[in-house]
Write a structure and sequence with these properties.
Strand content of chain B: under 5%
Structural class of chain B: mainly alpha
Radius of gyration of chain B: 19 Å
CATH topology of the largest domain in chain B: Rna Polymerase Sigma Factor, Chain: A
Oligomer: heterodimer
CATH architecture of the largest domain in chain A: Orthogonal Bundle
Shape of chain B: globular
Number of domains of chain A: 3
Shape of chain A: rod-shaped
Order of helices and strands of chain A: HHHHHHEEHE
Number of strands of chain B: 0
Number of strands of chain A: 3
Number of helices of chain A: 7
Order of helices and strands of chain B: HHHHHHHHH
CATH architecture of the largest domain in chain B: Orthogonal Bundle
């Protein structure tokens, strides 16, 4: 078991060490770079390793001497203090540093104001919203207008303050059922099915007289047929 | 010494990645770039300026200017090409300021070596700059010999892998195809080769550069 743990730790350590070599070649994964930067800042040996890897490549390619007059560690230490005093224009705010970005920030293009990409979508959403509201109002207008009787003591409030529908109606008002004329001993009687349905639902309001007695005569509207 | 036309560039993706991290607010990423290019920049400036202290000052100023202008690096050229221009311009500017004092200028100016059109490619086989101290020259030769000896001592598969990467400039994927092995194996072999060479030059470097980081 201890050997397995040692082997696991060794393989983890080797994998982390390999990341240094991979970063030299631009082949390190993003999450590996995160860990490497932390180690570079914290550990002397990691900075020395990075330096050795650079020297190996430069010597193999003949692109730079292995050693210059100024030791690399001294050079970096001097530069570091100057870098910390710098405040370049591109330097992100502390909030932006907390959210590391992976894309290179373009220099000038960002400074040009551009319209939002979803402006058109937002406008259509506003239009759709108004259309929905208008449809609801139209339906309400139609329902209330068809249910409320004209000229009688209806207890139902009738909204007459609703603004005209600015947009074409989305929902068509239903066709009211035809009136039925019934011949009775008292003459022809016009029966309105919608009115009857409403009065059946609201019996306490429809046809109740001051005597609190059902007034059946109010259920029937009468008229005198024109004489011929 | 590799031929001049066999210039294998540093991995550009690595530089771009470090630039991106710097622009995101991580100064350590820029320090990695400094460690990578300090010696090349100093050698470049050393071709134009005699005084070692002045070479170091100009090299420091070069990296500071690069840091300030980092957002202007768009990755369409190699990072060192961009840094090269900054180093040349910084050295020229410094020399112009020194021109006010003819005696100082004459003592600092080197003739015939400030051809800015030569570009970074001409740095190969440029020889030893006068600004490098004898100790540094000797140490560089000693380290170079140790690197070559370590390369010869490597197992063939490790030597092939690191040669294809460092000298030929192939990517891991290309090396995997060339050697007919998985990319993970390429990554491991190159790492092991570097570690083997690193072990040989570590004491030599510590003797020269010290342990201060």
């Amino acid at each position: 078991m201890s050997n397995m743990n040692t082997n696991h730790e060794t393989s983890q350590g080797t994998h982390a060490d390999e990341a240094w070599s991979a970063l030299v070649d631009g082949e390190a994964a993003e999450h590996e770079v995160d860990a490497l930067l932390v180690a570079f800042g914290a550990e002397h040996e990691m900075r020395a390793r990075w330096h050795r890897y650079q020297v190996i490549g430069d010597v193999l390619r003949g692109s730079a001497p292995a050693v210059t007059a100024v030791p690399a560690g001294d050079f970096l230490a001097t530069l570091r203090s100057r870098l910390e005093a710098e405040r370049p224009d591109w330097q992100p705010t502390p909030a932006a540093v907390a959210r590391p970005q992976t894309a290179v920030v373009p220099l000038q293009a960002d400074l040009v104001a551009r319209p939002s990409a979803n402006d058109a979508v937002f406008r259509w959403k506003m239009v759709a919203g108004f259309a929905s509201l208008a449809a609801v109002m139209a339906v309400s207008w139609g329902v209330i207008g068809s249910l409320a009787p004209t000229g009688t003591g209806s207890q139902l409030a009738r909204s007459e303050s609703v603004a005209p529908v600015p947009v074409a109606e989305v929902v068509a008002t239903p066709t009211p059922p035809p009136l039925v004329v019934v011949s009775t001993g008292q003459g022809p009687v016009i029966r309105d099915p919608q009115l009857e349905a409403l009065m059946a639902e609201h019996r306490q309001h429809a046809g109740m007289s001051a005597l609190q007695m059902p007034a059946g005569f109010l259920r029937n509207a009468t008229f005198d047929a024109p004489s011929r | 010494m590799p031929p001049e036309d066999n210039f294998a560039p540093q991995a550009p993706d690595s530089d771009v990645m470090l630039v991106q991290r710097t622009l995101a607010g991580d100064q350590r990423a820029f320090e990695m770039l400094v460690v990578r290019y300090q010696r090349r920049v100093e050698r470049l400036i050393g071709r134009m300026v005699r005084d070692t202290d002045l070479v170091e000052d100009i090299a420091q100023e070069t990296f500071i200017r690069a840091y300030r202008a980092l957002a202007q690096f768009r990755g369409d050229a190699q990072f060192y090409t961009w840094l090269y221009r900054i180093a040349v311009n910084t050295a020229k500017k410094q020399l112009l300021e020194l021109k006010r004092d003819p005696l100082v200028y004459q003592s600092q100016m080197k003739t015939g070596d400030d051809d800015e059109t030569s570009g970074p490619e001409r740095e190969l086989n440029s020889g030893v700059a006068d600004t490098e101290t004898p100790e540094a020259v000797l140490a560089s030769k000693e380290i170079a010999q140790a690197v070559n000896a370590a390369m010869e001592a490597l197992p063939e598969e490790l030597r092939n892998a690191i040669t294809l990467r460092e000298i030929e400039g192939l990517s891991y994927e290309e090396i995997a195809q060339a050697l007919d092995c998985p990319i993970g194996t390429v990554r491991s072999r190159i790492f092991r080769a570097r570690e083997a060479i690193s072990g040989r030059i570590k004491p030599l470097l510590e003797r020269q550069t010290g342990k201060r980081w």
